[in-house]
Amino acid sequence: MKVKILNVLTVCLVTLIVISPAMVVLRVVWEKHGELVKAQNLTCEVNKINEVNQAWYPPVTAGINNCDRYIVNQPLTTDYIYKLAIILQWFILLTPVCIGLGILVYDRYLAHRAAVYQEQVEMLERLWRQSIEQ
User: Among candidates 69, 65, 34, which has minimal Cα distance to 50?
Assistant: First the structure.
């Protein structure tokens, strides 16, 4: 049974080692994406302000206008998705660690319980020998 558990822990650890660089890259890319979305939203706000003040300033023509697309609370949505990704990342990282620690603690508990049981058996054997001698 312990060999199977050791094999499962080994597979979990190797998988964690293999996946962790990809998770780091995904986190960096996700942060950059969030910054890009914030920059696009700020650009849209500036463009809206420029449209209102066209009488005072000449119109700004800059490439593709991304402000025409339909956006419903996009910053809130990306924040929630980002938080969910962080929670999922920590869950994936901590699950094998918690399972391993749980198995180690349980093995220590079983060893302690066996030692206590052995002490009780020895004490009962001593009492039994004393009762026979009397």
Answer: 65
Give start and end residues of each alpha helix (H) in 53-66.
Answer: none
Write the pLDDT tens digit of every residue in 24-35: 787 788 788 878
pTM for the whole thing?
0.43
Q: What's the confidence (pLDDT) of residue 61?
A: 53
Q: Which amino acid is at 62?
A: A
What stretches of the chain show up as alpha helix (H) in DSSP?
A: 2-52, 74-133
Q: Which positions ≥6 away from 57 have C-beta within 8 Å?
A: 50
Decide if 41 contacts 75 (C-beta within 8 A): yes
Q: At what angle do helices 2-52 and 74-133 cross, to 10 degrees?
A: 160
Angle made by CA atoms 118, 122, 125, in degrees to the nearest 5: 140
